Amino acid sequence: MLSKLVIQNYAIIDFIEINFSEHFNIITGETGAGKSILVGALSLILGERADSSSLLSKEKKCFVEGIFNIEKRRNVVKFLNDNDYGEDDELVLRREIAANGKSRGFINDTPANIQQLKQLASMLVDLHQQFDTLELGDSDFQREVLDALAGNERLLAEYIGMYSEWKQTQQQLEALTASKNNFQKELDYNRFLFDELHEANFSENELEDLDNELQLLSNAEEIKMALETSVYELKESEQPIVQTLKQLVNKLSVFASFNANLEEIIKRLQSTQIELADIGNELENLNNDVNYDEQRINFINERLAVGYKLQKKHGVQSTKELLEIKETLQQKLDDVLNIDEAIRSTQNTFDRQLKQLETLAETLSSKRKKVVDAFEKNVNSLLAQVGMPNAVIKVVVSDIALHAFGKNAIEFLFDANKSNRFEPLRKVASGGELSRLMLCIKSLVAEKINLPTLIFDEIDTGISGEAAKQVGVILKQLAKQRQVISITHQPQIAGKADVHFYVYKQVKNDMVNTNIRQLNTDERIQAIAQMLSGEKPTAAAIENAREMIAN
């Protein structure tokens, strides 16, 4: 519900503030007083294009703010939470236009882009202007009308959820089929690559270990000579290092008791002697293990040649990477074996879901078709009431392939003159006809659909008398369920309002400004009487106006 609208420095509006009723609000005023300017300002917070030429004064910015009560609008609350705009029972939409034409939008004082404003505004306000009723010709809206009248809300929600699951299964099936085709193309090549690696049968780090061993074998003679020399010097020379250290320990030990530092040095020499003796033994063992083996060298060279060739082929540098490639190839070969089973399983799921969808779609279609006759009858009856006795609406529900909302294509057709030549609404209905037709339709579904605030800009164009009265009756009835704001020239409609606002011009600081005020009962009688008989209403007009308000 739009509870308050604030406009500053827009067109010929200096500053106005309007507090709307939650039911039926009427806005009247003389032609040119600025009623359409109010709608233009409101359009700014609904996401329409901003223009700096709309500014009354170039010295300050234009400011339009709408305050909405959103207590019962779950879709609005979800939008605010999803986009981090905060959640409260009150929502503020604001649009600012600077003198340079730069425009900014805000949702709850947080900057928002125009697309976000439009998306949110569509949940809050339904604005109907002459030649601006595209929604009525929209296939989604037409379907929503039938579903609302048929009570399809829960069934449709179940269908939509299952349709989403079915489409996901379809995507999985297509992906599996595509994968199988790709696997089949690559199968022989992958098997060849795998067989190469499998035949090579490398163990972990084998190539790196073989390379180290080859370096050892290739330099065996030099290594053996160095080892023998080291062992000789440590253990077997005329003056072995180990023996020399032992002798030093024995000579110094005689004097160990004379000096504490000397005792420590003797211990270190003993440790060194023992360590060098152990090193000598290990070097001797290594020397015994190092032998030149031409046959082993040839084997290693052949093994490394196979490994390096495979590394180059696969663009890798290590045995580990070759083993990882082998594992990946093994997985691909296994996938070929397993994919047929996966396809069969997914196909079974797809078929089962499709059967359930078709059953739900048929139920939805049946319920939609059942309400068509009553809907056509009620709309056509209302059209006659609002001054369109020759107009006829016809609803065509045809069966098509399954889609996100069932299996129906729904089209509202229209014949304005009982010519029996029905055409789609958007092609043949005039702006005034569409506005009144929209009013008739929405009055029928108001209790079924959570409609936003409905704003009708001069819906009464081209009608008067009894037709205008019936439009007022429908608007009044509609306003029991939803907030309605209507700009009108018809006294019959104005008389039905819960709250009546009057737009007028006044001269302020040598400038003409548009202003607005809420009328009390006496002022309403006077305003409606003027609508009936002119600026100086007759006593009969005043009495007539009083009866309109009373009734």
UniProtKB/TrEMBL annotation:
Q: What's a Pfam family this protein contains?
A: SMC_N
Q: Which GO terms describe its molecular function?
A: ATP binding
Could you tell me which CDD domains the record lists for this protein? ABC_RecN
Q: Which InterPro entries match?
A: DNA_recomb/repair_RecN, P-loop_NTPase, RecF/RecN/SMC_N
Q: Domain RecF/RecN/SMC N-terminal spans what residues?
A: 1-507
- Coiled-coil regions, chain positions: 166-220, 262-303
Kindly list the biological process annotations in GO that this record carries.
DNA recombination; DNA repair; SOS response
**Superkingdom of source:** Bacteria
Instruction: Give me the Gene Ontology terms describing cellular component.
Output: bacterial nucleoid
Gene3D superfamilies, per this entry?
P-loop containing nucleotide triphosphate hydrolases
Which controlled-vocabulary keywords does the entry list?
ATP-binding, Coiled coil, DNA damage, DNA repair, Nucleotide-binding
| Family to which this protein belongs | Belongs to the RecN family.
What's its job?
A: May be involved in recombinational repair of damaged DNA.
Query: What is the name listed in the Swiss-Prot or TrEMBL entry for this protein?
Result: DNA repair protein RecN
- Taxonomic source organism: Parafilimonas terrae
